[in-house]
Predict the structure.
Amino acid sequence: MSMKIILPTKIPPITGAPITAYPLGIALTNPQNYGWLYSHYINWSSKKKDQMRNITDPYLGIFGGWVFGGVHPINMSFHYKDKIFITKENIVDHLIKIFSNGMYIFTYINHKHFLGKHNYNHHNILIYGIDIESKNIYVWGYKDKLFQQYIISIESFITAFFDEEYDNMQKCFILLKANPVYSPYSYEDAKIQFTDYYNSRLSFDKIDNYIDNKAGCYSFKNMETEYEFITESQKKENYYHGFDCYEFLEWYVMNYRSLSDKIDMRVLRPVMEHKNMLFDRFTFYKVNEIYEIDYEKYLDLCMQIKSNANIMFQKASKNIITEADCSNLVPYLEKIREDEYKLLSDFVKYI
């Protein structure tokens, strides 16, 4: 039998957590969703003296129903294997049917069956394609602490999926599908500026929260009212938000040896991704002429911030190889923080 189905994906701009990375990789196959993207992932948060592995921007279930990772251009549904009668004998037929309908599969498996790591078991992957002739499936997932695409054999996947060592969420398929057009409500009802679903009002509030070190999300009470600000998660005792996260980051690069022998690049990667997105966001503003501002001035500063974030990440990688301490990262974090505050506190006056 000769059949090959590979669904489109994009490299997501945020990779710290699968619940964010997977749906973004699907949603961004539709160019219209970049407006939605740049209305979000502006703020971030971290546990105090603990970890910061993802750019968190709370936005779950706002327009009704639970959405996967807060990515509203994505539809999702749960399908437990005992409810849809998935067996080792018919799972390939299920995969073909799912991919033929343009749906992606998020599931949990026992990774040790194809990574050869006996202590690396319960993990998740996003399956986006199958090749019957080569007997392989195509996946996004975390391998060697990096978010990447790779190929595994159908046989290994079946063994890993039906492994009885774990009997919880790995026994289901969470099916994801990109909405052809994302519009949670009409322009007329919302009365908010959109450019390809970019939300200027929401962006302003998120930037304002970021500057003021606040957490929060928004709900639209109904089609005729303004946004209602939810403050229940603001400034939790154990969390940093907004610019306060730099306090954690500076503490971490100076004290990581109290936690492990090597600095965890998963803590620093969100800094690089966040600043890359900052530059991309302002590029989006310029291309779509969303604001009447001096774009070159802002983009120059965005590029400086992005460059320093990427240099800092590269130096951290080098420090791992040379076993040097990471105090040399602090000046970069301080400069990034200073420039970003200068940028956003000025920009917010014009939106």
